[in-house]
Amino acid sequence: MKKKNTVLIVIVAVLVVIAGILIGNNRYFSTLHSYASDFTVYDTASITKLFFADKSGNQVTLHRTDSGWMVNDQYPANQNVINEMLYTLNRMRIKMPVSIKKSDNIITRMSGTNTKVEIYQELPRINLFNKIKLFYHETRSKVFYIGDVTQDNQGTYVLKEGGDKVFVAHLNGFRGSISSRFSANPMDWRDHLIFSVPMGNIESLMLEINKKPENGFIIKENGRYQYAMSHLDGEPIAFDTLRVLNLMSSFTSVRFEAFLYDVEPERRDSVINSPFQERLTLTTKDGKSSSVTTFRMQPNADMFFYTEEDLQKYGEWISDPDHKYALLSEGNEFVLIQDFVFGKLLKPAYYYSKDYHEEVPQVYYKELKTVESR
Predict the structure, then answer these.
(1) Span 182-211, mean pLDDT?
(2) Does one domain contain both 242 and 166?
(3) Are 156 and 168 a contacting pair, CB within 8 Å?
């Protein structure tokens, strides 16, 4: 009888311990979930606006509209970067707060360098059991600060506005800081699109080549997907139809590589006042014209194995083979473009001639010697 009672007492004790662990864990995860709700957005579709501001004076507002996200209500946003931000807000996970002593030091450091994040959502005023939702309105749902990376490079410090506890935010499978994703610089959010015009909406296309104007041309539509091509002086060109169609269909998505907003004004003025290389002007059927004017870019001496003496002596004839400076008529923006994108759009008039045959590079293989097997 005593043995049975002892076994029963042991079983009850084990069950009590297990129950205590489960209750403790439930409280832990419940508390952690409560903390996470101050930073994580589980329904990113409800986000209507994001505002970021840093200690350098930069600030940006990202606003969702029916036609897509906008930057400061002026410029279209880069949808890929927006998607990355929404993914980060949704998948950002929060660890328990750091120690009080360590937290005080981090807060002091964050007071000098941080990014303020404000999240606005379309939320219901009445939410019954998450089933009945009534009277939706836009509200500022979360405000927090993004700090720098943790010492082990596994997370990023975050602090709720008005809070006194610092947490560590991280993305599963991502090593490093997520602070760069919360940039307050408007340029980091703007779309790099130059042309987005279907072939059927193009009225004309003109290419000017500064040093060889005879290689310039103009293409005009004279019927549905029917075109006439001529030199800039009006002389007709007997063109290869397929090549012209390939060109005219290439403007649905043409982008530049980067904004050059950090170039010194003197350097910018020097470039855009120098002789241009090409100017490409596209006019749509609604009469709107957009142009891209390209300029020579001096190559990086180390990357292309030039000496400083080479650049000084032959700099006028040496150009970066992969990049060019460009000035966009839209907004007078100074940008960097890639030859990979624009090389096919800036080919001279003779390339489209019916008589032109592109040379195919010949590759010769030296006779291979037979190696006897061992």
Answers:
(1) 95
(2) no
(3) yes
List, as own/partner pairs, every contact residues 79-82 make where C-beta atoms lie below 8 angstroms and the sequence separation is at least 24, other chains included: 79/191, 81/188, 81/189, 82/189
* Higher pLDDT among residues 91 and 151, named by residue: 91
Give the pairing type, strands 254-255 and 333-338. unpaired
57 DSSP 8-state letter: S
- Out of 133, 166, 188, a domain closes at 188
Is 23 part of any domain?
no
Distance CA 61, CA 73 (A): 8
* DSSP conformational letter for 368: P
205 and 229 in contact (C-beta within 8 Å)? no
Q: Is residue 76 part of a domain?
A: yes
Show Cβ contacts of residue 359 under 8 Å, excluding neighbours closer than 6 positions.
none
| Coil/strand/helix, residue 331 | coil
- Is the CB of residue 186 less than 8 Å from the CB of residue 333? no
For the ranges 57-66, 172-181, 203-212, the lowest mean pLDDT is seen at 172-181
Check pLDDT > 90 for residue 240: yes
| Residue 64 forms part of a structural domain | yes
Question: Encoding tokens for residue 329?
Answer: 């008529």
Domain count, the chain: 2
Q: What is the pLDDT of residue 133?
A: 76
Question: Phi, psi (5° rounding) for residue 191?
Answer: -70, 145
Per residue in 12-51, pLDDT (tens digit) is 555 545 545 444 444 444 444 556 678 899 999 999 999 9
Q: What is the pTM of this model?
A: 0.76
**Paired sense of beta strands 132-149 and 202-209, if any:** unpaired
Q: Which of 188, 204, 230 is the last residue of a domain?
A: 188
Contact 203, 282 (CB under 8 A): no
Those residues with Cβ within 8 angstroms of residue 133's Cβ, 6 or more apart along the chain or in another chain: 124, 126, 127
